[in-house]
Amino acid sequence: MYLIDTDVLSALRRPDSNPEIVGWISGRRAADLYLSVVTVGEIERGIARQRSRDPAFADRLGVWLDNLLRLYADRILPVDTPVARRWGRLTGEHGHGSPDLLIAATALEHGLTVVTRNVRHFEPAGVAVLDPSAHPYMP
Fold first, then answer.
1. Domain 2-134: CATH superfamily, name plus number
2. Most exposed: 1, 5, 16, 117, by fewest CB within 10 Å?
3. DSSP assignment of 4-61
4. CB atoms inside a 10 Å sphere around CB 55
5. pLDDT tens digit string along 65-104?
6. CB burial class (10 A; 0-12, 13-18, 19+) of residue 103?
7. Measured distance CA(106)–CA(7) in Å, rounded
């Protein structure tokens, strides 16, 4: 089972999406794909940043996020006490408390593989990582 990182979701949103990512996601059962509340927060932050620059684009992103929240409604994982404790250990070991470490802690606590193109952000945390853009697309 898989925890989808923000960068992969963002790539899927674009009309010129990477065919390898589209193919990889399309080949998985929805029940095996999860999001972190941290990813929801990262997307919301991006929408807020766009609001002053391009309100129409921010509105489209908001609709996209609302659709994601409906699609993943029962598969959005919280930062609960075990995740927070794992994150605390990871930040102590790695010297920073990035959102990626919260996502890594979530994946580690739930036995999930992080699906991301930012492999180098996650590998040091000891979490299983998969880059879907590195897998050939077979239609």
1. 5'-nuclease (3.40.50.1010)
2. 16
3. E-HHHHHHHHSTT--HHHHHHHHTS-GGGEEEEHHHHHHHHHHHHHHHHH-HHHHHHH
4. 10
5. 999 999 999 999 999 999 999 999 999 998 887 899 999 9
6. buried
7. 17
